[in-house]
Design a protein that fits this description.
four-stranded parallel sheet; 14 helices; D-amino Acid Aminotransferase, Chain A, domain 1; membrane; about 15% strand; TTL/TTLL_fam; transmembrane; single chain; about 40% helix; six-stranded antiparallel sheet; Tubulin polyglutamylase TTLL7; alpha+beta; transmembrane helix
Length: about 500
């Protein structure tokens, strides 16, 4: 009897245990199971989301672009369309950050308004203006400079007496009164001159200009200054800008400004009969169309271009000391470069005269769409010359490592004059500074940058340092300019492509 009770008790206990186990299993499967599955599912989602974020960050790091910033006083950027296009093609992205950028493209001089940030420039940051270049682009300062290639001019009212003496001596000459704001240009009689109008000047007028099909014209040459102290200057040889007066010069009438003043609505080269065929049918550049026309009339265009290059070199050397002084306020001059357009006029004997120099020259093709190619090629070549359009894909203009820097230009690329350097044992000798043991960090940087510019100049032509010739005189140059010219002489001896 007792055994039966024990058996029943055991069976009962086992049944209870079995029910508990079944209940627990049901509980686990119905409640805990989904909880665990939900946990695993949400863990997977969390992992996947973070993995995606990490991938996005990696892509963002891989796709970072060098940055450019725009500065204009009036916030009008329509005229900078082609600058934007070229920069985007080179992989740049625009930023509005005041400090973190690689290139600042300023339509107006930024040095007063942005003075605080200009004094905190990083070595890799580049700006498209040099402090002090206003001495070249200011119309009064330029026109009253003493140069073989600038017609006599007199500031009004400061040089009124000198002007009267000059007109008495050369009574047959006529003069044009100009203001520094590029407006109000006209020929005036002596009695009509305002002697109280500040910021203006009187300049001798070319009475017998060189005409094509009866039209007076000017020639716009694009010039880049990449360095001062020492000076390096280039001109764009890919093309120049010809602008013609819309009304024929003769019979001359000083009341009709469109006969002798080139305005915004100028006559383009493709509407000038004698040049139209060269330019539109034969697809020559403006410069080559002009050259062909000149040769067809038994004249030599080489004289024009040689004189233009001499005029550019002369006027920039004349203003060099002022630019150097202005740059010193901002520390590192290597941050700056300058693109200007210098306009020239010709007399009937093809003598060359500087008319004006344009700071931030017009690069908009809105008025003449056919000029788009010219402007974009100038900008593209400019960025190559100054190292902004780099061959190496980078997310900034910063130097990333020494080996990458040396891949572009190494010490061996800047060595010259082996016969001199093997005997140099005194770094106080000026010429020994051209030799590696006597390099200062500044001198070495000058040669490295000069080498890179030579490699990247594309359709730019160096006019200073000037073409290397035998017995060339250096005595009128600063010591740094003399040293750089001597370095180019050394490169020229090793490779003729460096001679010009």
């Amino acid at each position: 009897m007792l055994n039966k009770q024990n058996v029943h008790s055991t069976i009962y206990t086992q049944m209870i245990n079995l029910k508990v186990k079944i209940f627990l299993k049901i509980f686990l499967y119905s409640i805990m199971g989904p909880i665990i599955l939900y946990y695993l599912f949400f863990s997977f989602l969390y992992y996947h989301e973070n993995l995606t974020k990490m991938q996005i960050k990696v892509l963002e790091m891989e796709e970072r672009n060098p940055l450019y910033r725009i500065y204009t006083r009036n916030n009008n950027i329509e005229h900078l369309k082609h600058v934007f296009i070229v920069l985007e093609r080179l992989g740049f992205k625009q930023t509005h950050d005041e400090y973190n950028w690689d290139l600042l493209w300023a339509h107006d001089y930024p040095f007063r308004t942005l003075n605080f940030s200009m004094n905190k420039l990083k070595p890799h940051q580049r700006i498209n203006h040099f402090p002090g270049c206003g001495y070249i682009t200011n119309k009064v300062d330029l026109s009253t400079s003493e140069s073989r290639y600038i017609l006599p001019a007199f500031k009004i009212p400061e040089q009124h007496e000198e002007f009267l003496l000059y007109t008495n001596q050369y009574s047959e000459k006529i003069f044009v009164q100009k203001s520094n704001n590029h407006r109000g240009i006209s020929i005036k009689n002596i009695s009509e001159i305002s002697i109280t109008e500040t910021g203006s000047f009187m300049q001798e007028f070319i009475q017998r200009p060189f005409l094509i099909d009866g039209y007076k014209f000017d020639i716009g040459v694009y010039v880049v200054i990449t360095s001062v102290n020492p000076l390096r200057v280039y001109v764009y040889k890919g093309d120049v800008l010809f602008r013609f007066c819309p009304i024929k010069y003769y019979p001359f009438n000083s009341e009709i400004l469109d006969k002798y003043i080139v305005g915004d609505d100028y006559l383009p080269i493709w509407n000038v009969p004698s040049l139209k065929y060269y330019y539109t049918k034969l697809k020559f550049s403006m410069k080559n169309s002009f050259d062909a026309y000149i040769r067809s009339h038994g004249k030599y265009p080489e004289k024009v271009w040689n004189d233009i290059h001499e005029a550019i070199k002369e006027i920039i050397l004349l203003k060099e000391s002022y630019i150097i002084k202005a740059v010193k306020r901002f520390g590192n001059e290597r941050n700056f470069f300058e693109l200007i357009r210098i306009d020239f006029a010709l007399d009937e004997d093809l003598n060359v005269y500087i008319m004006e120099a344009n700071m931030s020259p017009n690069l908009s093709s809105a008025h003449y769409p056919a000029n788009q190619l010219l402007y974009e090629q100038i900008i593209f070549n400019l960025f190559s010359l100054v190292g902004i359009g780099q061959r190496i894909r980078k997310d900034s203009l910063k130097i990333r490592n020494k080996m990458e820097e040396q891949m572009e230009v190494a010490d061996k690329n800047i060595m010259v004059l082996p016969e001199l350097c093997i005997e140099c044992n005194d770094c106080f000798r000026v010429e020994c500074q051209l030799c590696s043991p006597c390099f200062t960090p500044e001198i070495k940087m000058i040669f490295l940058q000069s080498y890179l510019e030579h490699q990247n100049k594309m359709d730019f032509q160096r006019i200073f340092p000037p073409p290397i010739t035998k017995n060339m005189s250096l005595k009128d140059y600063t010591l740094k300019n003399q040293l750089l010219v001597r370095w180019y002489q050394g490169k020229c001896e090793l490779d003729l492509s460096w001679c010009s």
